[in-house]
Design a protein that fits this description.
Blueprint lengths: L10 H4 L2 E5 L5 H13 L15 E5 L10 H4 L1 E5 L6 E5 H7 L1 H10 L6 H7 L2 E3 L13 E2 L11
Parallel strand pairs: 1-2, 1-6, 2-5
Antiparallel strand pairs: 3-4
Helix pairs in contact: 2-5, 4-5
Length: 152
Amino acid sequence: MSTSFPSGTGLAEKRRWFVVDAAGQPVGRLATEIARVLSGKNNPQYTPFMDMGDHVIVINARHTHFKGSKATQKVYRRHTLYPGGLREVSVQEQYAKHPERVIEFAVRGMLPKSKLGRAMGKKLKVYADAEHPHAAQQPQPLEIKMSATAKS
């Protein structure tokens, strides 16, 4: 019995494009499914050390929501590397200024923290509204299925 092993050549030509409508979806559950597609874990040829994932376009990022108290208590923190340079932005402020960054941060947090993870993150395109400039790639709709326990 022989085992097939992907060679890594021609991966970029075989990548598919998917579009996800994020309206009404919780951010965390949406991000886990998007991270699976970006990393290629939905592909039967999945290999952990190769970028086997597809491109994902997320539209309507402005209309997502958080479960529980995360909508009021979650804070994004970064440091400017200067003394006293800790900067904090709440989720409400982030939604008001840059709603697409909320999904980008959630998905990138679920990808590997390496060169491979950064390459996977570059295949994510997030837009606040329903319009996107990737019609030439003919993206297929990707349905995010929510379980019965997740809907409550």
